[in-house]
Amino acid sequence: AGDGRGPVPGDGTDPPAPERVLFPPTFSVSEIKNKQRRHFMFLRWKQQQRKEKLALKKKRRKEREALGDKAPPKAIPKTIENQRVYDETTVDPNDEEVAFDEATDEFAPYFNRQTVPKILITTSDRPRGRTVRFCEQLATVIPNSHVYYRRGLALKRIIPQCIARDFTDLIVINEDRKIPNGLVLSHLPDGPTAHFRMSSVRLRKEIKRKGKEPTEHVPEVILNNFTTRLGHSIGRMFAALFPHDPQFIGRQVATFHNQRDYIFFRFHRYIFKSEKKVGIQELGPRFTLKLRSLQKGTFDSKFGEYEWIHKRREMDTSRRKFHL
Fold first, then answer.
1. Residue 98: pLDDT band by 50, 70, 90 thresholds?
2. What is the mean pLDDT of residues 199-226?
3. Under a CB-based contact definition with an 8 Å cutoff, are residues 183 and 196 in contact?
4. What are the CA-CA distances from residue 92 to residues 80, 81, 105, 193, 238 (Å)?
5. 273 vs 275: CA distance, rounded Å
6. Alpha carbon 290 to chain centroid distance?
7. Cα–Cα separations (whole angstroms), residue 192 to 57, 80, 83, 282
């Protein structure tokens, strides 16, 4: 080993074998003409990317463990949410103008405990089975709600009847091709009325590892990320659907989570396994809402005055601009 000719094979000083590189740095899947081969090579390339990412993650974790308390703070990843364009209408909880608006808006009687929520849930004309089942399951989530099926009756005629029977809110579930695709929420008697596009509807039987049927206890309500004036109004609309005092013994939670102007609804039951661990089970149904318009007063498609309308070409110019 000391004759100047370099390391002798097998003496423990062999240079490490170079790692086999599956793809050259300038590799491009699009250059492959054969479709099946291109798809196969793309899957192999993705697999290699995942392995490299996992190896780098393990390496960084070991370095942090070795440094202990001297490890630098974790870098905050850049996401669309934390790179969001600032909105001038973002609500400040200490703003006197916001407090005055809350004290005088259409939902003030509810938050002042002068009214008790009573909800009417109805559908478009001649609903199909899936929409009917969705309405029935939604009624088990919202306490003191009643399901009635429309038989060619116009909404303008339904609303006065709801007001006469002391209903505080009207929910209309619209469908297209037997699938629920829209939700109209009108606060009675003076509005406002919100029109949502509905998607990703999952009934209870379609949810994996779901819990048992929900009980009749009043659920807790969680409203996440409704930060602007518009989002604040929408959050108050959702809050006004549920009675004031939740029954914690039922351990049921209804969540409206706003992310990138999509409102995700989930209904869970939780249980405390220990002082630090909590287990949750989804009860269903689940769905996603996207606000299309907010109208003053009750439903009026012809002469109604709109506070806000979603105009895609004008409003969706930036991926980091959100309205709720």
1. confident
2. 92
3. yes
4. 22, 19, 17, 24, 20
5. 7
6. 10
7. 50, 30, 31, 31
Q: Which residue has the tokens 């609804």?
A: 265
Q: Is the pLDDT of residue 82 over 70?
A: yes
Q: Which two tokens stand for residue 299?
A: 């439903």
Per residue in 13-39, pLDDT (tens digit) is 555 554 555 666 666 778 888 889 889
- Domain residue extents for the chain: 29-66, 89-316
Q: Which of 232, 170, 173 is nearest to 203 (CA)?
A: 173
Q: To which CATH superfamily is domain 89-316 assigned?
A: Brix domain (3.40.50.10480)
Whole-prediction pTM value? 0.79
Burial label, 150 (beta-carbon count in 10 A; 0-12, 13-18, 19+): middle
User: By C-alpha distance, which of 151, 152, 122 is closest to 135?
Assistant: 122
pLDDT digits (tens, 9 = 90+) for 135-162: 999 999 999 999 998 877 888 888 999 9
Token duo for residue 265: 């609804």
